[in-house]
Amino acid sequence: MLRIRLARGGAKKRPYYSLVVADSHSPRDGRFIEKVGTYNPLLKKDDPKRITLNSERISQWLAKGAQPTDRVARFLSTQGLAKWAPGNNPKKAEPHAKAKERAAAHAERAELAANAPPPPEPEAVEEPTAEAAAEEAVEEAAAEVMTEEALPEPTPDPSAEAPMQAETAAEVEAAAEISDEGADGAQDEASEAASED
């Protein structure tokens, strides 16, 4: 089947299209039968060089059964060579199944949030006045005095302290003996060193 279509040319980010008659199975920018016009999308819409068409050759190819693509049919309709009507695809904008599920879940969460009771507002806490603060301080001081008076002081257990004192006394005596021995040893070493000289 023959198609009249656009074949892209030009540089990167600078497109330039050729209107070609080609077999429908050949690649977009591949082999073609005849070049019948050009399209430069970078030019302004009212520029006459934006679209150039070889009307005689296009009408001959249309008579032989060549079918224009949708975009080319738009261009040809401006010259009166072909009829073009905008397509109608009502399902084009319809979301797919997963998007519908997400939308339903989102709507359900929004409905639950709308029906939920509002959170309770925190109660306003009144700041205490100077008189109330003074009264509280007096009450706290009185409570401390009451607890100190109510609790009896613990009495020391003399039997518990006696062994500690005995241990400490024994330790003191042992430390004194060690220091005496150390002093005697130092004196002996000093006297030996003096006699050798």
Summarize the structure in words:
With 197 residues, the chain is of the alpha+beta class. It has a domain of 78 residues: S16 Ribosomal Protein, Chain: A. Helix content is 50%, strand content 16%. Strands 4-3-2-1-5 form a 5-stranded mixed beta sheet. A hairpin with a 2-residue loop joins strand 1 and strand 2.
What does this entry show, briefly?
With 197 residues, the chain is an alpha+beta fold. The chain contains 5 helices and 5 strands. The protein has a 5-stranded mixed β-sheet with strand order 4-3-2-1-5.
Q: How far from one another are the termini?
A: 131 Å
Total helices: the number is 5
State the helicity in percent bands. 40-55%
By DSSP, the count of extended strands is 5
Strand content: 15-25%
Mean pLDDT: 78
What class would the helix/strand composition place it in? Answer: alpha+beta
Largest sheet: 5 strands, mixed
What is the H/E string? EEEEHEHHHH
Shape: elongated
CATH class (first level) name of the domain at 2-79 = Alpha Beta
The CATH architecture designation of the domain at 2-79 is 2-Layer Sandwich
Per the CATH scheme, the topology name of the domain at 2-79 is S16 Ribosomal Protein, Chain: A
Kindly report the name of the CATH homologous superfamily of the domain at 2-79.
Ribosomal protein S16
Adjacency order of strands in the biggest sheet = 4-3-2-1-5
Unreliable runs = none
> From the alpha-carbon coordinates, what is the Rg to the nearest angstrom?
54 Å
